[in-house]
Every structure is written in structure tokens, then in C-alpha cells.
Design a protein that fits this description.
This is Nucleoside deaminase. Keywords: Metal-binding, Zinc. Pfam families: dCMP_cyt_deam_1. InterPro entries: APOBEC/CMP_deaminase_Zn-bd, CMP_dCMP_dom, Cytidine_deaminase-like. It comes from Pigmentiphaga daeguensis. This protein is of the alpha/beta class. About 40% of the residues lie in helices and about 15% in strands. It is built from eight helices and five strands. The two termini are about 15 Å apart. The protein binds zinc ion (ZN). Zinc ion (ZN) binds next to helix 5. Zinc ion binds next to helix 5.
Length: about 170
């Protein structure tokens, strides 16, 4: 593994902070139920919460049950692509390659995340069953034909706290 630079923390306003903190609460809920500590919230352009979800991999055995895909599975059948284009997806951790792809397919155009993938690797360690594909969600979003705004890492101390002692060593 080559050492990657740590991305700088980005400021969030009160509204983004509120929903990102909710995503972090859901990450802690996920952990208390035997899953990896990840949570996600999708909020519409008018501030309506469209979906809340957490990682359910441990509960269900479904390796695709990441918090973001779970939230998108709730919101996508119930809302039009036009509605979702104005929505923001909040994630307690930087979306993985799969979730970044799901965000693209959902037509959600704005993402705010807590802890970044580079810092998460300190918790994942060297175990192959915990490592991620080392591609930033921004690399996926940059390949999208429509712009997808991405803010993060943000609220780093709070987002990182969910992961303390939460991974196998
Ligand atoms: Zn994911």
C-alpha cells in the first residue's frame, strides 16, 4: 500500500451538519446491531428526509447492504429522478466504489460525507475481508456525465469515533 495524503477537513453549514450528524447516529446504531458502523440519510431539496438507513451486512449477510445502497433502495422507487436530482445524500463515511455507482444511477447530485476512505483504512487494517477497493468516490463522480457535488471529509472527529474499536485487528 502506498501512503496517500490525508484529505483536509471541509466545513459544513448548520443544515448539512445536522443531517451528517444523523448519519453518524445511524452508523452507531448499525454497530450496535452487529454491522460495520456506517449510516446514511437522503434529504430532498425542500429539506424532507427521503430515506434513512444503516449498514445491514452483518444482520442480513448481504454484502451489498451498505448504508448508502440501503438508503437508495428506499428512496429510488418512491421518488422521481427529477426529485432525486435535487436531493443530498449524507454518509457517515466516504462512499465506496459500489455506493458511488449507486449514487450515480439514483441521479442524486450532491454528497456530504464524514470520514474519508484514506483515514478509514487505518481502522480496516491489512485484513482482506476488511480492505476496500482504493478508488475515491470522487473518481467515480468525476467520470459521471452529470456533475455530482461532493463535500468531505467533514465532522471528522465525530465520524471517526464510530469506528474506534469497531473493526477486527
Ligand atoms: Zn458502499
Amino acid at each position: 500500500m502506498t501512503a496517500q495524503p490525508l484529505p483536509g477537513e471541509q466545513p459544513v453549514d448548520e443544515g448539512d451538519g445536522r443531517y451528517l450528524r444523523r448519519a453518524i447516529e445511524l452508523a452507531n446504531l448499525a454497530r450496535s446491531r452487529g454491522n460495520r458502523p456506517f449510516g446514511s440519510v437522503i434529504v430532498g431539496a425542500d429539506g424532507t428526509v427521503l430515506a434513512e438507513a444503516w449498514n445491514r451486512n452483518g444482520e442480513t449477510g448481504d454484502c451489498t447492504a451498505h448504508a448508502e445502497t440501503e438508503a437508495i433502495r428506499l428512496a429510488s422507487p418512491r421518488h422521481t429522478r427529477e426529485e432525486l436530482a435535487g436531493a443530498t445524500l449524507y454518509a457517515s463515511g466516504e462512499p465506496c466504489v459500489m455506493c458511488a455507482g449507486a449514487i450515480y444511477w439514483s441521479n442524486i447530485r450532491r454528497v456530504v460525507f464524514g470520514i474519508d476512505a484514506v483515514r478509514l483504512r487505518a481502522f480496516r487494517g491489512a485484513r482482506l475481508d476488511q480492505r476496500d477497493a482504493e478508488l475515491s468516490c470522487r473518481d467515480v463522480f468525476d467520470a459521471s456525465p452529470v456533475p455530482i457535488a461532493c463535500i468531505g471529509p467533514a465532522l471528522l472527529d465525530e465520524a471517526a469515533a464510530s469506528h474506534e474499536g469497531g473493526w477486527k485487528t
